[in-house]
Design a protein that fits this description.
Strand content: under 5%
Number of domains: 1
Oligomer: single chain
Structural class: mainly alpha
Distance between the termini: 29 Å
Shape: elongated
Number of helices: 4
Radius of gyration: 16 Å
Order of helices and strands: HHHH
Number of strands: 0
Length: 95
């Protein structure tokens, strides 16, 4: 439920920006230094880092026949990568 709300707000923001004719530079200028944007997208990244690996672990078990231990280890690695890269992107947009 939380991830769906993040996606809806994100899509609404994209539509607003595109219809308003904002360029990439103008969007970045508006987001720099905004702790509200950082908090929103930081939470969005964490929600993705929790949601996506859980699904990938189940897919690896069912489709690839991986053991629970192996699929969970791969999912943990995916979660870490998603969190690190996503939070780095949030930092780059806000800082």
């Amino acid at each position: 439920m939380v991830l769906a709300q993040f996606v809806l707000v994100h899509l609404a923001t994209i539509i607003y920006a595109v219809r308003g004719g904002l360029s990439g530079g103008e969007i970045l200028a508006r987001t720099q230094g905004s702790w509200a944007i950082a908090a929103f997208y930081g939470a969005f990244v964490i929600a993705c880092a929790v949601h996506v690996p859980l699904g990938l672990a189940r897919i690896a078990e069912e489709w690839l026949g991986w053991s629970g231990r192996c699929s969970n280890a791969a999912a943990a690695a995916c979660a870490l990568v998603i969190a690190l890269l996503g939070l780095r992107a949030v930092y780059a947009v806000v800082a």
